[in-house]
From TrEMBL:
GO terms for molecular function: phosphotyrosine residue binding. SMART domains: SH2. The keyword Transferase does not apply. This is SH2 domain-containing protein. It comes from Amphiprion ocellaris (Clown anemonefish). It comes from the Eukaryota.
Length: 107
């Protein structure tokens, strides 16, 4: 994943993601490397109930999906772009879109 995307935080832990999202409003999100599998990525999201963490699944043909009812996309940025204008296909987040990227702070 390229560092050109303001919402991509790289090797951020789940708890670090939650710390960043604590200060944010509902529908704020970031993408980070999965802690359980080095080659996977996770979406961390601030919802009205707290935090949600979802792994991007990769199909056999290398396309990415988010949740069971997501259409397949060629890249994670395409997934993110799509869900800025569409509701998430995730149980508990059906009313939400990706509205507010948590921007990486550089020193």
């Amino acid at each position: 994943m390229c560092c050109l995307f303001v919402w991509y935080h790289g090797a951020l832990s789940r708890s670090e993601a939650e710390s960043l999202l604590t200060l944010c409003k509902e529908n704020s999100y970031l993408v980070r490397n999965s802690q359980t599998c080095r080659n996977d990525y996770s979406l961390s999201l601030r919802s009205c109930k707290g935090f949600m963490h979802m792994k991007f699944a990769q199909s056999a043909d290398g396309r990415y999906v988010l949740g069971e009812n997501s259409p397949p996309f060629s890249t994670i940025p395409e997934v993110i772009h799509y869900y800025t204008t569409h509701k998430l296909p995730i149980r508990g987040a059906e009313h939400m879109s990706l509205l507010y990227p948590v921007i990486v702070q550089t020193l």
